[in-house]
Description:
The protein is of the alpha+beta class. The protein has one domain (13-147): Nucleoside Triphosphate Pyrophosphohydrolase, CATH 3.90.79.10. The chain has two helices and eleven strands. The protein has helices spanning 61-73, 136-147, and strands at residues 13-15, 18-20, 23-29, 32-33, 36-42, 52-54, 76-77, 83-91, 100-107, 110-111, 120-126. The longest helix has 13 residues, at 61-73.
Amino acid sequence: MPGAGKVCRGHVSREWGRIVPVLIDTVAWVCLENGRILCARPRGKDVFYIPGGKREGAESDLQVLLREITEELAVALLPETVRHVGTYEADQPGSPGGAVVRMSCYTAGYSGTLTPSSEIDEFAWFSYADRSRVPLVDQLLFDDLRAAGELR
Length: 152
């Protein structure tokens, strides 16, 4: 968030007498088939997300993407096919201090069979009609994919 000042991970920062929201930095895999997008529901959650996850340390987007998708869905993304789709930001409702989620989205081919891991209860193929079942930041991606004619 250019110009917003220092953003601290894991707590709310006070800067120049104002509160700066926590930035939750994520990377996501946009997997589209037949006009639908792959979404996953983590264990113990009621909401579905675009598969991916949070950065650990100084990982690059590519490193996060490859690690998270292997962990969540037991497939190997093909690094040479990874393409940036867009980066989206939205408030995370219900978070104290007003956290903002930043989701950097990538498409990529893969090898293997999609299989939910121990941290994922299920995955499903969503159409635009399922938009309300994903978080706000994911809904922004749904909107762009719909406008581009890629999500039915």
